[in-house]
Amino acid sequence: MKILVINAGSSSCKYQLLEMDTQSLLGSGLVERIGARMGCLTHRTYKGGKEEKVVREHPFPTHVESMEEVIALLTDPEAGVIKNKNEIAAIGHRVVHGGEAITAPVLVTQPVKDIIRECFLFSPLHNPANLTGIEVAEKLFPGVPNVAVFDTEFGMGIPEEAYMYALPYHLYEELKIRRYGFHGTSHKYVAGRTAEYLGKALKDLCSVTMHLGNGSSMTCVKNGRCFDTSMGLTPLEGLVMGTRCGSIDPAIVPFVMEKKGLSASEVDALMNKQSGLLGLCGHTDMRDVHAQIEAGDKRAALAFKMLVRSVKKILGSYLALLGGKTDAVVFTAGIGENDSITRAAVCEGMEAFGIKLDKAENNTRKPGARTISTPDSNIPVLIIPTNEELQIAMAAKALIGK
Ligand code: AMP
Predict the structure, then answer these.
(1) Does the Cβ of 388 fall within 6 Å of ligand 1?
(2) 336-383, pLDDT tens digit by residue?
(3) Whose CA is nearest to atom 9 of ligand 1?
(4) Is the pLDDT of residue 125 over 90?
């Protein structure tokens, strides 16, 4: 069974074609700068263990032309990986916000699209693009089921005392202001893989997952379910991120609006796109931050310390929530999987909490899931590579199987 996974952004579209019988990747790629004067499609195929890469640079006026070209590449008689698009059994879509109504992956129907549209309010950058991806797929793959998998799904399981904000209750009733949590597809996948790695049933797993990438979030997993999560109504809350400020005193918002004469959307953009590592030191990529620290840049050093501190504070609070029964603390995503410096800084001084990092193992680069703590660490520290696309494809497969 072959499943296509689409992650549509406002001017970009990522995709993967997976063979589900072997859980292997047949093709993947990214179309960038859709709608701009010049766009770029980078396409990869994986045939017989050999990776082939194609780069096409020309304008892609809309997502429709982009996806048409992707289909042409996937079905190319010589370089393609499938004979024709009818081989695709289902299409899985990443959708950022499903609001309170959606708590599981769903087959796309008109009411589902209406809910995705209603959630434009909470996710104005992502949900419209995600809906475009679905509509393009409906047009180009008539009759093929579309499955929507929501970033908010895993976080919907958290208890009321974790999802409510201490604001007047009517704001929750009227506007559905609550914690939803994001990166749920990644957190769910990593929880599943962690249980597998530890040889435990998922329902018995108690762990903390640190998804540290350009966007970063953490979840506290109790008995296999999300028990708390760091992102909130939107993906802005929680950790210091590449361009997002994470948690700040909410009173800063009206203060800055008043003093700088900014509108609500301007201050929102300031917190989402001009803050975090970028706002502090001018760099968003952790590799650049490390290079700047090496070069003696004090702001870069400050930004790094602030990011690490934000992770440690949430890690400590989740260990407290788990009440001493933690099966693993897990690093994942771009920084979590690749950056030994960040991992070491987060684990530093955590011995009293049962976390002892094996420095040599941490500094070794190896693919796949592995343990980076010492054998006498009470809580194993793991690296579990995330794979949101595979999680989406598995959800699509399970749904169409029904
Ligand atoms: P993601 O959002 O999960 O794709 O993560 C992207 C981020 O991971 C980049 O912006 C970098 O900050 C970080 N990253 C990726 N590779 C490395 C690496 N080798 N060392 C440090 N940071 C890395």
Answers:
(1) no
(2) 999 999 999 999 999 999 999 999 999 999 999 999 999 999 999 999
(3) 285
(4) no
Instruction: State if residue 276 touches ligand 1 by the CB under 6 angstroms criterion.
Output: no
Pick the CATH number of 201-388 from 2.70.98.10, 3.40.50.2000, 3.30.420.40, 3.40.50.2300: 3.30.420.40
Q: Is the CB of 190 under 6 A from ligand 1?
A: no
What confidence category does residue 10 fall into, taking pLDDT thresholds of 50, 70 and 90? confident
- Is the CB of residue 346 below 6 angstroms from any atom belonging to ligand 1? no
Mean pLDDT of 135-149: 97
For ligand 1, atom 20: residue with the closest CA: 339
Q: Are 389 and 5 in contact (CB under 8 A)?
A: yes
- Ligand 1 centroid from CA 229, angstroms: 21
User: What count of Cα atoms within 13 Å lies in the side-chain half-sphere of residue 198?
Assistant: 25
Atom of ligand 1 nearest to the CA of 212: 3
pTM: predicted TM-score of the whole model, two decimal places: 0.94
The whole-angstrom separation of Cα 14 and Cα 189 is 19
In the numeric block, the tokens 């040889």 are attached to 199
Contact residues for 135 (Cβ-Cβ < 8 A; gap 6+): 113
